[in-house]
Amino acid sequence: GQVPVICVDGPTASGKGTLAAAVAARLGYHLLDSGALYRLVGLAADKAGIPTDEASLADPTTADRLGALARSLPVRFEGESTWLGDEDVSDALRAESAGMAASRVSAVPQVRQALLELQHGFRRLPGLVADGRDMGTVIFPDAPLKVYLTASAEQRAQRRHKQLISKGIPARMEDLLADLKARDHRDMSRAHAPLKPAEDALLLDNSSLDVEQSVCQVLDWWQGRS
Ligand code: C5P
């Protein structure tokens, strides 16, 4: 049969990455952080001098160049580190600016198409946990378990705030909340692969759950799948 996949989709800062990594570790499965791929395209575009502002993206030539860039992304994952060519981009990837750039380039169909095969390549035995926006709807529609993770925008902004402050990065709640809402809106309203729960997704609101409780819920669903 097919290699099993657990999809974890949801909005920005819902805790998908943490949950997916914990579930993957518990099951000994591979992990796909699909957002990192879009962040990498954003960084690579910057490096190559390809503009990613809204107006430039509407130009078909720019969209094609971004698609070509995404198809030949010189990316390597080495343990905890991510390399783009000869540059360790592990930290640059996590910056808010990389997330915003990712959100812009991810609306380009040529980019989504280019990353499709790359993502399918992560589906290897004994199994995969994949987190993103369209894992259950577009990339792995046959996945036996699809989780749609949510939390209120305020909760998510608060978590992001705590994260940044603990890393010594100054941040204002109002700015974070506004950025989050802008990103949610863009991700949910785009024409190609918008963020939405798959029809057969199970909804998990982790507003009042800690990580361990969320992990247990997903593992329960996984064990109980038909
Ligand atoms: O999850 P993360 O914040 O790293 O994703 C960054 C951006 O990449 C998202 O805001 C979204 O626009 C885009 N993305 C996507 N499809 C995915 C994963 C991420 O469009 N599967």
UniProtKB/TrEMBL annotation:
Domain Cytidylate kinase: 6-220
Sequence positions that bind ATP: 10-18
Annotated compartments: Cytoplasm
Superkingdom, taxonomy of origin: Bacteria
Oligomer status and interactors: Monomer.
Family membership noted in the UniProt record: Belongs to the EPSP synthase family. Belongs to the cytidylate kinase family. Type 1 subfamily.
Job description of the protein: Catalyzes the transfer of the enolpyruvyl moiety of phosphoenolpyruvate (PEP) to the 5-hydroxyl of shikimate-3-phosphate (S3P) to produce enolpyruvyl shikimate-3-phosphate and inorganic phosphate.
Protein name, per record: Multifunctional fusion protein
Source organism phylogeny: Bacteria, Pseudomonadati, Pseudomonadota, Betaproteobacteria, Burkholderiales
Interval of the full protein contained in this chain: 450 to 675 of 680
